[in-house]
Design goal:
alpha/beta, DNA polymerase, domain 1, TIM Barrel, 2 domains, elongated
């Protein structure tokens, strides 16, 4: 028996056409579309302004592959981590990160990851599949509800920094952003969304060509090819020269700054040459640097550099008028911090 199609794969126009083809009015498609996205209906029975007969017809033809929050953990610092169960039993993780003034959703784009960064827990999972737009959208919707529940205000920002490489699931990520920012969806401003990539040059250019209004962040960690390839082996394919070219293209097309995410590790990139290389890389286009606190995933070779080394990075970057911030990790006690998302639910398929 052929599996039913996820109804959220249909556009509004396709929904309208479906109803006309089944002897109903086209506007019925508008109603159902609103239930699916703006009202985030989990099942057809939720659609209370649609007749029982119409709901039965939808049930006979389609499914809504909605996510479920399988497990929720709250950190002592207020961070919330969701283990999200997908319709096929696979699990990904997403995080709500609160500050005094805003709440940020860190969402996943793949089950596992397409890349193999040796310092990241997610990279140790094989990539099982891409998330579809509805599954990404649902993560944001769930965190928005948690933000309202725990912090009494709507979600402020979204970062694609969870499990997976967003630009290796390009079409689905962009479709999810389209719905997140649409008045027919969550209506969030694209300026409050950041797509973080380890560096997929042709997709960075495509984002620029398509006029995407979101912010771009690059997970850099070294501006020296030899070091970067050692810790991020895919750099052999997408090397720094090709990434530089793509970033220049991005800036010329969008006139928007890029954020470089950078972890400093003891004995890996804590030397003068690494600092100098980063400074030169920052001269390519207007940018800022986020120095990110490392969150160990085992007792391996990656250890946070000393405070003196971090301060040396800061002083050298500031000396060259490069904006630099130090990002302290949140949710470490529940493995919700950057690089720690590893889908540890024991019943994961």
């Amino acid at each position: 028996m052929e599996a039913k199609k996820d109804i959220r794969a249909l556009s509004k126009e396709e929904l309208r056409e479906f109803f006309v083809a089944n002897g109903d009015k086209a506007f019925r498609g508008n109603q159902v579309y609103e239930w699916l996205w703006h009202k985030t209906a989990h099942n057809f029975e939720d659609m209370t302004n649609v007749s029982k007969g119409t709901r039965a017809m939808l049930e006979a033809n389609f499914v809504i592959n909605h996510i479920e929050v399988d497990q929720m953990q709250r950190s002592k610092d207020g961070t919330v981590k969701n283990a999200i169960r997908l319709h096929d039993g696979l699990i990904v993780e997403s995080v709500l990160i609160p500050t005094d003034t805003r709440t940020t959703a860190c969402v996943s784009s793949q089950v596992g990851c397409s890349f193999n960064c040796s310092f990241c827990a997610t990279a140790r999972l094989k990539r099982m599949r891409d998330l579809n737009p509805g599954e990404i959208y649902d993560q944001v919707s769930a965190i928005n509800q948690e933000s309202l529940l725990y912090y009494n205000h709507k979600l402020s920002n979204i970062v694609f920094m969870g499990m997976g490489e967003p630009l290796m699931n390009y079409d689905n990520v962009m479709k999810s952003i389209e719905m997140i920012t649409s008045p027919e969806g969550l209506g969030m401003s694209p300026k409050r969304i950041t797509v973080s990539t380890s560096g997929v040059p042709h997709r960075i250019k495509q984002m620029a060509d398509e006029g995407t209004k979101v912010n771009l962040a690059l997970s850099l960690h070294s501006a020296i090819d030899e070091i970067r390839t050692k810790i991020m082996p895919f750099n052999k394919k997408y090397d720094l020269a090709s990434i530089k070219e793509a970033l220049i293209y991005w800036y010329h097309k969008t006139e928007r700054h890029v954020t470089y995410e950078y972890v400093v590790w003891e004995g890996i990139n804590d030397d003068k040459e690494s600092i100098k290389a980063l400074i030169e890389f920052c001269k390519i286009i207007p940018c800022k640097v986020n120095l990110i606190e490392y969150n160990p995933i085992d007792d391996g070779p990656f250890q946070q550099a000393s405070p003196a080394t971090i301060n040396n990075y800061i002083s050298n970057l500031e000396m060259h008028d490069i904006t630099v911030n130090v990002r302290r990790s949140r949710g470490k006690d529940i493995d919700a911090a950057c690089g720690q998302l590893a889908n540890k639910s024991k019943d994961t398929v």
